[in-house]
Specification:
The protein has 185 residues and is of the alpha+beta class. Helices cover 11% and strands 28% of the residues.
Length: 185
Amino acid sequence: MNFWQVLATTTVITTLSTNLVQGAEMIATQTDETIGIGLKVYQVQLIDDNGQTVDTIRAVSGRAGKQTPSHKAGSQTPLPFGIYQFSMPGSVSHPGGEFGGAWSPIIPTFETGRSGIGLHYDPSAFKNNGQAGTAGCLATPTIEEREIMTQFIRAYKPTQITVRDSSLPNLPNRKPLSLPFTESL
């Protein structure tokens, strides 16, 4: 009996489930669109517990002229692509200055030299004042988008945010992915 016959006659169907998201989440996709003095726009989907997009806002990350994500601490580049967890789901504090009155800390679920990352508002996004963009956080460019983000975080208490490149295919993030495969006994 050859390998394929053994495989066909002694199979076990196994299902892989990759439904890792429990609760609301956010997905930020870096685009090629720019605002202000060259800040790349992230389209941020605000997704409820049922996997439905409640709203979409814009965000920026990193400083103008430094728009390639990096794992290097102090680089002032956009935050690295990956999954981040909210350290305090549902919490938004109100620091002033360049945090623009809103701060929700997030923690990378992967190894990186970056720390002190969060979501906030960038009051300088459209200004040429040396403060446009962020030192690596994800920030809304308008007060209106800050308010939408803040209300979503408080109401839905998202547990994670995925930051991704637009060149990656959209993967199902809410429904279980079932992949039957066979293995010989």
